[in-house]
Amino acid sequence: MKGLLLKDFYMAKKYCRMILLVTVVFAGVSIAEPSNLFFQFYPVVMASILPVTILGYDEKCHWDVYGQIFPYSKKQFVSVKYLMALIFVCGMWLLLMAVQIIGMLVNGAGFQSNLLFFLLLVLSCGFLSSSILLPVIFKFGTEKGRLAFMVVICLICGGSAAAVSVDPDLHMPISADMLSLLILVGCIVLFLLSWQASIKIYEKREL
Predict the structure, then answer these.
(1) Could you read off the pLDDT tens digit of each residue along the chain, which spans 207 residues?
(2) What is the DSSP letter of 68?
(3) How many domains does the structure of the chain reveal?
(4) Range of the domain at 140
(5) Helix, strand, or coil (residue 170)
(6) Nearest in space to 49 (alpha carbons), one of 76, 26, 6, 16
(7) Which positions ≥6 away from 160 have C-beta within 8 Å?
(8) Do the Cβ atoms of 43 and 24 come closer than 8 Å?
């Protein structure tokens, strides 16, 4: 399992450097444009689809077939992609959170009451996009799974627009922060269910 993780990290370092650079730049730009949620959602969403990019390179060089000669199960092949998604999403989210805190200190704006609300939504979005994309990719492959990618991007854009229109001070049975926390828990549960579904899908897939 460690070997598979290292292989994916090396591939991300070689083939995904530009994507990682762009996401870091967007995270930095969010300091200057804190009200534009696109610059907050984009880095985490792009981080969440990096495992899909790696899967594309795996298929291109036929690693998905060649790798079967190694003592790894199909469950491990799937699990490593979900672990990569978890690492990339959480890592980018922590970077984004640090950038937002630094931005508040630099701008002297003080702690924003809605910061936790939006940060939790951003993290939820990262888990959600991986949960939707990975099972489809494991079922149909990266070429046929492009439609799922487009659907996820549309959902993220729509979700960002909806999040902008939400008033965190709106009177609700529960606080906005609690609502975003519940959404995050739901997305984490969906991520775990997607993980198990992808394992079952890939185990039945003929390579």
Answers:
(1) 788 888 888 888 887 777 777 777 776 676 666 556 666 777 888 888 888 888 888 888 888 787 778 888 889 999 999 999 999 999 988 888 888 777 777 766 545 657 777 888 889 888 988 898 899 888 888 877 767 667 766 766 666 556 555 555 555 566 777 888 898 999 999 999 999 999 999 988 776
(2) G
(3) 1
(4) 2-204
(5) coil
(6) 16
(7) 37, 38, 41
(8) yes
